[in-house]
Design a protein that fits this description.
Layout: E1 19-23, H1 26-36, E2 38-44, E3 51-56, E4 59-64, H2 70-84, E5 88-97, E6 107-115, H3 135-148, E7 152-159, H4 170-176, E8 181-183, H5 186-196, E9 199-209, H6 218-233
Parallel strand pairs: 1-4, 1-5, 5-9, 6-7, 7-8
Antiparallel strand pairs: 2-3, 3-4, 5-8, 6-9
Helix pairs in contact: 2-5
Bound molecules: hypoxanthine.
Length: about 240
């Protein structure tokens, strides 16, 4: 595979680490690099989808934005895996709570990711695929959270193609099936990783609730995001 790719302008192998944290917002990638990493180099600016590599507690790790939605994370995760040899892809994002027992500021881990997207059609499977997280990364993340005293809720999430859905209450049906929250990327990440035989995980902070209509303040978002980042950074 030849590099650079159409979307990641990094012409040298080995610059991007085997473990990459993937926030949706590229400015969050910059925040993580600025706040937590040492010896930082920037490896991508195409479309302002900033990507950085540095070290965290001496271990090499990268962080890059994915943009919003399944097609966007589908492109970036595919290129990271197939062109740059990335082995561990860890999404750190936000989600909306779709159950009463899931509260704003909760930290969730997507053990499975349901979806209303047609992304799996490309595999021409004779049935319905269940996108799941890597057990190794999931187990490690749960243990890191325990050590840090951060409560995490592990279960199913929904990767939706719509933020503004014509069926205003469709999320309730997913909630009734035990699905904790709705975001827009994890299912594609899990499928790309599974098809390539690499590891993926999705950590989420609940930023709003479709049940109660509460939303976190920018300060709260920053603080809870920091807890989630601290878990993710230990997975390198
Ligand atoms: N829907 C989809 N994605 C989200 C939401 C939501 O309500 N909140 C944060 N990410």
């Amino acid at each position: 595979m030849t590099i650079p790719t159409p979307h990641i302008k990094c012409s040298e192998q080995g610059v991007i680490a085997e473990t990459v944290l993937l926030p949706g917002d590229p400015l969050r990638a910059k925040f993580i690099a600025d706040t937590f990493l040492e010896d930082v180099v920037q490896f991508n600016t195409v479309r302002n989808m900033f990507g950085y590599t540095g070290t965290y507690k001496g271990k090499k790790i990268s962080v890059m934005g994915t943009g919003m939605g399944i097609p966007s994370i589908g492109i970036y995760s595919y290129e990271l895996i197939h062109f740059y040899g990335v082995k561990n892809l860890i999404r750190i994002g936000s989600c909306g709570a779709i159950r009463e027992d899931i509260k704003i500021r909760d930290v969730l881990i997507g053990m499975g990711a349901c979806t209303n997207s047609n992304y799996a059609a490309q595999y021409e499977l004779p049935g319905t695929y269940a996108p799941i997280a890597s057990w190794e990364l999931l187990n490690k993340a749960v243990n890191v959270a325990k050590e840090k005293g951060i409560e995490v809720k592990v279960g199913n999430i929904l990767s939706s193609d719509t933020f503004y859905d014509a069926q205003k209450d469709s999320w309730k049906k997913w909630g009734a099936m035990g699905v904790m929250g709705v975001e827009m990327e994890a299912a594609a990440l899990y499928m790309n990783a599974a098809y390539a035989g690499v590891n993926a995980l999705c950590l989420l902070t609940v930023s709003d609730s479709l049940v109660t209509h509460e939303a976190t303040t920018p300060e709260e978002r920053q603080n809870t995001f920091t807890q989630m980042m601290e878990i993710a950074l230990e997975l390198a």
